[in-house]
């Protein structure tokens, strides 16, 4: 749904549920979620949004002023790289900055691969106990098409770039792949199982869809 406030066109998602009042959530990634009682009219929702015009405009301004993160990296002092959802400089990630761009890229790949492996191993161990499953192995890979995979042998792979995402998004990918141990396809039963352990998994999917293109080295 959308609403025009001054010169800003603001897009938001409406989630209906059994509740008494309309409320609004603003995510750090730029998503606006409106939670409304079942059968709330569209006009009531728009009126609620208009009543929060100042909050929405301030929020939009903060988003517009966020640090710019490009998909094509220049490796200079001004460049931003994502780590756990935060914008970082090269000096935040590497102890020494090589002169050669190819060596910088290799150093970044080594950094992200190491961090992703450390984080994923801990989160897999945690969620295996929660979900009641056991994986056979964990491998960190360089993939252009997937954030994670699980095969019929219960072997898990995770994209080395995954540590660029916030921890909650990493958890979603881990939950997703562990649930494949129980359901190998993406049928309704699979998504119900994922939703049991991450009720907001669609927001994590939105994050990956929105920021995946700049999660690069």
Fold topology:
Layout: E1 2-5, E2 8-11, E3 13-17, E4 23-26, E5 32-37, H1 42-51, H2 53-64, E6 81-83, E7 86-88, H3 90-93, H4 101-131, E8 137-141, E9 148-150, E10 155-159, H5 167-179, H6 188-197, H7 201-211
Parallel strand pairs: 3-5, 8-10
Antiparallel strand pairs: 1-2, 4-5, 6-7, 9-10
Helix pairs in contact: 4-5, 5-6
Q: What features would you describe in this structure?
A:
This protein has 217 residues and is of the alpha/beta class. It has 7 helices and 10 strands. It has helices at 42-51, 53-64, 90-93, 101-131, 167-179, 188-197, 201-211; strands spanning 2-5, 8-11, 13-17, 23-26, 32-37, 81-83, 86-88, 137-141, 148-150, 155-159. The strands form 4 sheets. Strands 3-5-4 form a 3-stranded mixed sheet, with no helix packed on it. A 3-stranded mixed sheet has the order 8-10-9, with helices on one face. Strand 4 (23-26) and strand 5 form a beta hairpin. The longest helix has 31 residues, at 101-131. It is flat. The two termini are 34 Å apart. The model has no long low-confidence stretch (mean pLDDT 91).
Shape: flat
What distance lies between the first and last C-alpha atoms, to the nearest angstrom? Answer: 34 Å
Number of helices: 7
Uncertain spans:
none
Percent strand: 15-25%
Q: Give the helix/strand class.
A: alpha/beta
Strand segment tally: 10
Elements, N to C (H/E): EEEEEHHEEHHEEEHHH
